[in-house]
Amino acid sequence: MTARILLLGGITEALAIARRLGPQHVYSLAGVGRVPQDLQCQVRVGGFGGAEGLASYLRESGITLLIDATHPYAAQISRNAASAAHSAGIPCWALRRPAWQAQPGDDWREVEDWAGLVAALKPFRRPLFTLGREPLQHLDEIPPEQFWTLRALDACPGNERCEVIGARGPFHIADERALFQRRRIDVLISKNSGSVATEPKLEVARELGVPVLVLKRPALPEVDRAFNSQHELAVALDLR
Prior knowledge:
Blueprint: E1 5-8, H1 12-18, E2 26-29, E3 42-45, H2 50-61, E4 65-68, H3 75-88, E5 92-95, E6 108-111, H4 114-121, E7 127-130, E8 148-152, E9 162-166, H5 173-182, E10 187-191, H6 200-208, E11 212-215, E12 225-227, H7 230-236
Parallel strand pairs: 1-2, 1-4, 2-3, 4-5, 5-12, 6-11, 7-8, 7-10, 8-9, 10-11
């Protein structure tokens, strides 16, 4: 299609789309993780200054289509994207990865927020956090009877009650099984990202009978068009 696209990245599928975009388009990253070096399109790293800053960028850069392919839990960015596109008078599309669905044998317990998570964690001793860096803000709140294992994109200091593992997906079931057993994990904490790359942890939790505390997905804004898969979006963009 004839357009100048700003693609807001944050999930694996966004990078796959970016690899098919030409030099007139822009792929935007918030600055977390590695910057790809194999793209033909332009790459922009960093924030825009909220919805108003993003709207100004859209106008000044001649963007005619905004695509929100950020993480399902990046709700504020998604709200900013929808608002900015509306202000700039251009369409906003979104790639929204479907959520995982509990399978037979799963013990999933949905929690609304951090307070709900802390309450649900009380019976457990060896949790594995796969929420990214958010739990780092709470290391001084770890109960004396608990030891946390926290997995994030990059390793960083923990404390005497928490070890932080730096690791990037895709993860494999044998490695996840070894991690659960070595660390004696008795509860898994996860966002419902819907990512195939990180789904093996759920399979292992099911296999070992480990409960999963699932952080509820936030509500996302309405957009002009929403797509469930990378393929659907590529077809709509006529990327051959």
